[in-house]
Amino acid sequence: ESPDDVLLAATSVVGLQRKIDLFYQWCRENLMRINALKTYIAMHGPKPSRMPQFTVAQQRVSVVTQYTYLGVVFTTNTQNMFKEHFSTKAAVARRAAHGVLHIESMIGLLPPKEGKILYMGRVDPHLIYACEVMPDASETLLEELYQVQKAFLRRILGVHKRSMLAPLHTETGVVPLRYRRLELALRYLEYLGQRPTSTYACAAFIESRRLMQLGARSWLADLGTVLRSIGATEALEKISEERPPIDLIQKHVARRLHASLREAIHPHSKAYLLSGRKEPQVDGPPREIQLCLRHYLEVPKAEHRRALTRVLMGCHLLALEKLAWKERYRQVVPHSDRLCRFCRAQVETAEHALLHCSASDDLLETRR
């Protein structure tokens, strides 16, 4: 059996036509036929002054600037040949996310635990597709995919679009897309380092390493750019080794992930209530965990669960948060002036409204 997606590569016009003719002859001998209408030519790099013509069995083959091979979209007229792939996968993932969230019209609000399972099964595969061959050296292209991830997480948590990004991951246990894709790329790096020297994969890895050492663009250089962008400088020199120590590199990356989340949720951030908190354990004392599905997200009643989530993530409508927004007819109100609507004496924080304020009889009655 032969796959129906076949790629022929050559460095010259004459060489490519020769390969096409040989492949056509091989197909005839094996009782197969090439469909010229589904065959395309793409030219990467400088274009010739006069566009050549290619044929399959005397039928002309079209020259295109965009094509799809094994689910990856390539373009020949853009600086980044994977640009359209990111846009295409972001659109597909967005449709998948909408399909998952549409079930809320039938079952009500989707619980975060089940939402996470559906996300990993239906949306995540599109966001990570082929990430091992295209490290995220472009922030703009990665952002197209990340928009889908953060919109989905905000929806299942019930928080608004101004919510902090770090709690979307610390509260659900879903790894930020940048680190998720980097982890898979590092696994592929490990695979390449283990290939026999006689394989094409090993030859490509050696060439990529040589180009990186020369300061030229390459797959390995892009991987280094990603590591540099997250601050994992200790791992930069290790990726170009003949057999990269992947376990050590992954530990560096994991430390940077946890440090970045910890730095984002500090005592002066919107989600200050989450700073330094500890997660209850079944068989021991509470301990600090950076990434996990939090126990309060399993509160059965959706309204209570979402209200608690909004308080903890700083997405409530109390003065502390609401008056921090700049609106059309109002500037940002200084922190000390965001006073409680009842007592007008203290800043209207969640803990003040829920536990301390005594200036409203209705509020006191509700607490009982």
Automatic annotation (TrEMBL):
<protein>
    <recommendedName>
        <fullName>Reverse transcriptase zinc-binding domain-containing protein</fullName>
    </recommendedName>
</protein>
